[in-house]
Specification:
The protein has 11 helices and 17 strands. With about 290 residues, the chain is of the alpha/beta class. It has one domain: Alpha-Beta Barrel (TIM Barrel), CATH 3.20.20.70. The strands form 5 sheets. An 8-stranded parallel beta barrel has the order 2-3-6-8-11-12-13-14, surrounded by 7 helices. A 3-stranded antiparallel sheet has the order 7-10-9, with no helix packed on it. A two-stranded parallel ribbon has the order 1-17. Strand 11, helix 7 and strand 12 form a beta-alpha-beta unit. It is globular and about 60 Å long. The two termini are about 25 Å apart. The model has no long low-confidence stretch (mean pLDDT about 95).
């Protein structure tokens, strides 16, 4: 029988550059919610959500924007699992004058601030980035103690954490958190591949990381930019689930911007079926994730 494959759609991300590169990247809460609804209708089981400051397009942590997006999705009655990011608030840029202090571009904040919208809105899922790494000219910083605090607060809200891992060492740290009981079973892992300077988007890396997952883990993977669709196919072949969306890739074909998230989801459905599997139902998704 064909295996049910979960599709997650990351509809916007938090990079301030993306809206400058494509007019189709949603910015306002209404636009973001509409893209989530369209992605769900196209076949996405999960929508992964960042919010942006409408006046600038930059990533935001404002609760009011998250609330509006979530309310709009819930009021639409579309059946989709909501996944809110907790990644915002982890960027550190050292000051040129005093590297021990944060300089312009930093948004580093407390674990409590990073999960405040999770505790308030109680989505089905939220990301938990198990990563400290160089990212462009910044450091994406998530210390083990901060991760433990965030995991504890997420669990208290009854929300499923999605463990985002950008390299092999991140996976080892996440697996240790599972072993110590900080993450409830079954753990959900998302392999984020092709991001500088993390793990590359290739078959060897995905296979290695899959081999290091704790027993019973549910996992998905994605590649950024031109690696989005090849890594989606590879994840399906290796027994995982897939993520697509404008957060990771702006193009539906070489040189052709995707007019939204729905075409990317539709392509994911085509890839899954071409490999001989099928899109999971939302009921199956909830069962597999223990939600």
């Amino acid at each position: 029988m064909a295996r049910p494959v979960i599709i997650s759609c990351a509809v916007t991300g938090g990079s301030g550059e993306a809206p400058k590169k494509s007019q189709h990247v949603p910015v306002t809460p209404e636009q973001i919610a509409n893209e989530c609804i369209a992605a769900a209708k196209a076949g996405a089981n999960i929508t992964h959500i960042h919010v942006r400051e409408p006046s600038t397009g930059n990533g935001s942590m404002e609760l009011k924007y998250y609330r509006e997006v979530v309310d709009r999705i819930r009021q639409s009655k579309v059946d989709v699992l909501i996944n809110l990011t907790t990644g915002t608030g982890g960027m550190y840029v050292p000051s040129k004058e005093d590297p021990s202090r944060a300089g312009p571009g930093s948004n580093i904040t407390t674990p409590e601030a990073r999960v405040a919208h999770i505790l308030e809105l109680k989505p089905d899922i939220c990301s938990l980035d198990v990563a400290t790494m160089n990212m462009a000219n910044t450091v994406f910083m998530n210390t083990p103690s901060h991760l433990e605090q965030m995991a504890t607060m997420i669990a208290s809200a009854g929300v499923k954490p999605e463990l985002e891992v950008f390299d092999h060492g991140h996976l080892r740290l996440a697996a240790d958190m599972v072993k110590r009981g900080l993450i409830k079973s079954p753990p959900l892992f998302q392999m984020c591949l092709g991001i500088a300077w993390g793990a590359p988007a290739d078959t060897e890396t995905m296979t290695l990381m899959r081999s290091q997952l704790p027993a019973g883990a549910v996992w998905a993977a994605f590649g950024i930019s031109r690696y989005e669709f090849p890594m989606a196919a590879q994840a399906v072949i290796l027994g995982g689930h897939v993520r697509v969306g404008l957060e990771d890739n702006l193009y539906i074909a070489q040189g052709k911007l995707s007019p939204g998230n729905a075409p990317l989801v539709e392509r994911a459905v085509q890839i899954i079926e071409a490999v001989g599997e099928r899109r999971a139902t939302n009921a199956e998704t909830r069962q597999m994730l223990g939600i």
